[in-house]
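Handout, section B. The chain below has 333 residues.
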Amino acid sequence: MSEQQSSSSSPAAHQALHAAMSNGIPPRFDLPCKLPDRAEIVTANVLKLAEEVPNPRLRFVLQTLIKHLHGFVNETNLETEEWMAAIQFLTRVGQTCTPVRQEMILLSDVLGVSALMNSLNSPFKGRATENTVLGPFFTDDTAHVESGETIASEGKGEYMYVEGRVVTTEGKPIPDAVIDTWEADSDGFYDTQYADRSHPDCRGRLRSAQDGSFAFRAIVPTPYPIPGDGPVGELLLLMGRHNMRPSHLHVMVQAPGYHKLITAFYPEGCTYLQSDSVFGVKESLVVKLEQVSDEEEARKRGFPNGNSFKLMRLEIKLLTNEQFKTYRALSSE
């Protein structure tokens, strides 16, 4: 058997041939124009084809995307070289993603899309804890910690103790809520940014107690740069924008019957609070850190060294799923 014959009969070759076959959907003959030789006909034909999408919501989203995307190309009179540069940029963004690095989310973040989406999906200001951007550094690869235990290994930063309660909008405790938390170390890096990472660090998962309370040891958050070694970093340089984020602690809370909360808490006084590179800061999420200078209290809280630590107190209010649906529907009217 020749080398060409062997290659064409390989599993990969068969898979490629199968992917290149017709999907069996017959052609449409009722388009506005059979031959789209003018710009407006191209758009009309694509929109007509989108009418066949069976799911009403998906149909609406795709039709709106097509209108705005085609409108953008028309409004900017996009040139072929510019289009290709954009394609290559988005390709690089995708290729930069790994199981522990999300460059696509980072792109959404720096363009304000993540913040905008969060604002549209947070129609409950004043009623519950507000959400904010997830960021590109969340992973399911995390360790479970018991109440009062640490999420950070020794030497990662200045001691901080976090305590609080998870409650309903009426102030009733929510027991057994799953709380994920993660943060950068004092050098401004998440554990996933270290090439020699062997285990999760500065991140943990715990559950609220019967009275809704929770507590864990962490480190005082510090400002840090979002990754500048990829295409998103290059984009910020082209736009003349800094790549710094204000100090913050990420928190995600889930409980049966309640709307999932993705948020972060920002210690007051940080230089970058009003110029966050991903537009994530909300006034209600800015918190005060208390200074505790008491060696006995530090040991009681589990800190092995020193005689002081910072204290972050939180009250996390969750919406029920029904409350969220109601508020979301009202905001859409």
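Note. The chain has ten helices and eleven strands. Compare this with the example in section A.
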